[in-house]
Amino acid sequence: MFPLIPFVVVAYLALYAFAISIPSQSVLRTTLHREKTSLGPQSSLDSWIEQQEKISLEKLLANVAPGGSNTRDAAPGTVIASPSKQHPNYYYQWVRDAAITMNTLVILYSSHPSSYLSSKLMPIIESYATISTKIQHTPNPSGLFDDLSGLGEPKFNVDGSAYTENWGRPQRDGPALRALTLMAYLRAFNQTHPVLWTSLGGIDRFADLYSANLPANSTIKADLEYVSRFWQEPGFDLWEEVDGLHFFTAMVQLRALREGSTLAAAFGDPGAAKFYREQADSLEKTLLPRFWNVEKDHLVETLNSPRSGLDCGVMLGALHGTPSSCSISPSDSSTCNYAPYTDEILASLLAMIKDQRYRFPINTIPPFREGDADVDELAGVGIGRYPEDGYNGYETIPGTGNPWFLCTSSVSEILYRTHAYLTHSKSLRVTSRGLPFWRALVPAILSPATFDENSSEFKEALRRLKEVGDGFLAVVRRHADGEGSLSEQFDRVTGFMRGAENLTWSFGAFLEAVRAREATTS
Ligand code: NOJ
Ligand code: NOJ
């Protein structure tokens, strides 16, 4: 029985490794040092993307310890949200931002494990695992480690100590995102060190991250126990403003439980494997369907909220709550529920774009009027968090919200991932739910039907997904500054950047969109 376990671990990790190993050609070209090239406004989007990709990685790493030039007094493994220490002060480690950022670094590492870049990334990722354990155990205003309540704490000081001021807490997406990143790291390590893994005995080497012991004393298991115990409980949303049940949170919780169930089985913890699977099934059946609003014909981010429900969090839920392998081999339909290419996500995306187009003056240059016949409903525009947003980067005043870089890039990523899905599935099935999106994309699509890969509609859909995705990255390009810096927001009237400067997540979301774009050309 016993020698079987390492084998099972290796087999599991090999099976899942493909999910994070989608090749990213650009990483080959990416170095920590960027050449100085100046790109004028006429240069192609491709060359700008290539340059901005290097800059984004460099500026992202500047916000990560150890090594980041903006993180000198931060504990190793810390991701600062932004170097901005005042107006606004974002010089903290947010559990969400850190997990999302580190996930990007794990993907970069696993794409080219023997590169110079990866030799720098490995110690960073290992420090992240260590600091994650430490902050889990740090008593904080959300609670303690012992009953797991403290794991819902959203942000910590950069030395890993608790932040004790008032805040929107708990936030229940953090443990799920952290578990997802650490599980991706385990798979990446196994994939790149199969011999080392076997000789060290993967299970023992990583007992700090996962072991069957209860009460949980390993990092991933503590997070999975937290998710299992609290997914039905309300908490603050990813924007830290509203207490309730949220689509983004539910999506990342579901994915963490599904991947956690597989991991538990591989680590010789069959009871937990079953328990996490049951929790996942229950979340999927009882909670997730409630986010589809039949009257509105789109997903809503928060249940029972007075808001419209249109929200960038819905797109982020699709992107972070489903593995990117769904676009390539959606073998297990339940793992891929609400993946980027699904009718529910595309319908919600269209509704969001339509709202944002007329909400911000910068989106209407040249001036579009609602109802103009020849307007491409999907032409690139700046996308904010949600229509009612009043946070302008410094303070909250109703009506002063702005487009965000990370949301604008995420629209591109949804469209590129949909492109990859169509390419691999070789046909386009338009249902009545998906029809408004597909008709906006390809006006020749007039009613629900299935189009095979040789049809003109299918070919046009592929061309347009890429074109429209590029249109949103062109918006990012327009509002970035000459150095390639990306703040949190760009002003709804002037278009100039505002809010926290060099926001780590802005760079990560751009890098993820570019990675998805590369998969459309391979
Ligand atoms: C800072 C939060 O991080 C942001 O999401 C929120 O909108 C503002 N505070 C206003 O509450
Ligand atoms: C405000 C955003 O709303 C939130 O999602 C993020 O975690 C923090 N800023 C830090 O970037």
UniProtKB/TrEMBL annotation:
It catalyses: Hydrolysis of terminal (1->4)-linked alpha-D-glucose residues successively from non-reducing ends of the chains with release of beta-D-glucose. It is an enzyme of class 3 (hydrolase). It comes from the Eukaryota. One of its GO terms (molecular function) is glucan 1,4-alpha-glucosidase activity. Its EC number is 3.2.1.3. Gene3D superfamilies: 1.50.10.10. Signal peptide: none annotated. Residues 55-514 form the GH15-like domain. Keywords: Carbohydrate metabolism, Glycosidase, Hydrolase, Polysaccharide degradation. GO terms for biological process: polysaccharide catabolic process. InterPro entries: 6-hairpin_glycosidase_sf, 6hp_glycosidase-like_sf, GH15-like, Glucoamylase. Coiled coil: none annotated. One of its GO terms (cellular component) is fungal-type vacuole. PANTHER family: GLUCOAMYLASE, INTRACELLULAR SPORULATION-SPECIFIC, TREHALASE. Belongs to the glycosyl hydrolase 15 family. This is glucan 1,4-alpha-glucosidase.
